[in-house]
Prior knowledge:
Layout: H1 11-22, H2 30-33, H3 41-64, H4 71-79, H5 81-113, H6 120-138, H7 142-165, H8 173-178, H9 187-198, H10 207-210, H11 218-245, H12 250-253, H13 259-268, H14 270-307, H15 313-330, H16 336-365, H17 368-386, H18 394-421
Helix pairs in contact: 1-7, 1-11, 1-14, 3-4, 3-9, 3-11, 3-16, 3-17, 4-5, 4-16, 5-6, 5-14, 5-15, 5-16, 5-18, 6-14, 6-15, 7-11, 7-13, 7-14, 13-14, 14-15, 16-17, 16-18
Amino acid sequence: MKAGSGAKIGPVAGTFLVATTMIGSGIFMLPATVAAIGSISVIGWVIAAIGALLIGLTLAILSRDEPHGTYLDSIAHVLGPVAGLVSTILFVISMLISLPMVAVAAAGYTSFLFPALSSNTATIALTHAYIWIFVAVSWRGARLIASVGTASLVVGLVPLILLATLGWGKFDAEIFRSSWNISGKSNASAAMSATLILFMAYLGLENASIVREQIENPRRNVPIATVCGILFSTLIYIASTTVVSGLIPAATLAKSAAPFADATAVLLGAVAAMLVAVCAAAKAAGTLGALQLETVECVVVMKRQVAGGSLSRSGTNIAVGVIASAIALFTASPNVASQFGVLATALVTTSILSLVLAGVALAKTRSGLPRATGIASVLFCVGLLAAQPLKDMMVAALLCIATAALTAILIAWRRRMAATAN
Length: 422
């Protein structure tokens, strides 16, 4: 695997790498996932976008101070090795969850194209096939991943831009209003529940900070790629998903395996819907490459924090594929939207816990505006988690317990190795 060699990427390719990790890491299934809450989720998009910018800037600033590592290394240096290891493990877990989640989205749109593959068994098989195709693609390194990601982003933007523009001509305000809040919760609670799920669409904002060793002049280009990627993605997200909420009633949308394709069918007919499904499947699949590369790099960081030295990226690439397949099998659900929702909640919660430590690290080491940015990102993350019902956090709680146990094991192993060396 050439993840540590070859030509590096510049700010434009870096922006597309960030954007392609976000656009496709859930956006094509999110309208169905939040439909059970209602069209009030548009408020969640605004809150999530503000939080994403705060967190993106926090990670970019931290990575600038780490000449030969990532913001995960910065957390270890500032808050201590235990905090650094906890943050890295949480982030690795979130990346391992994101891989099968995006593969599920790709499988859902593929089953829309080929109804014979819509059975639960066929969808599970498709999910695993997508995972391993992009394990193979990732073998070739960052330049190929960026190229595939850019191409898939262009293809994937077709259904989003189509709905963000032409969709407003058939936007039904009454459908939007009648679906405003069908969750049974208060408006404030519903909006915050939507924010937690929708924030998942911004996971990937850290990509440039994680793979900074693959980027030219990272001190300058990582912040550029991060902020530009977030702003570009936000524009696409809000414009396209709001239209979907005004084309299909929430009760119907919640059952969809391919919400953008179903919305396009309402707008332009079945043939156009098929083309949109092709684009969406290609984009969701293309995202897997960027996620695979990022996950491998995170595992390399974890190895460095535990025992120092390097780690075979080729072997790690295969191991990540095995674990992602296991998670996909373990979380298999009767329908695509249900499995996606379970994975999305766990993904966002574990990611946020890692990001809280990044904000604390920045606030501790910097002053002025950077410190205020770190504090604001921490408050956003903590507030988002605190607003969620306890029952929605059970899977994430189990993952946190597993993280604590794994951290204790790795620290004990590191101490034993150090004692043996002495």
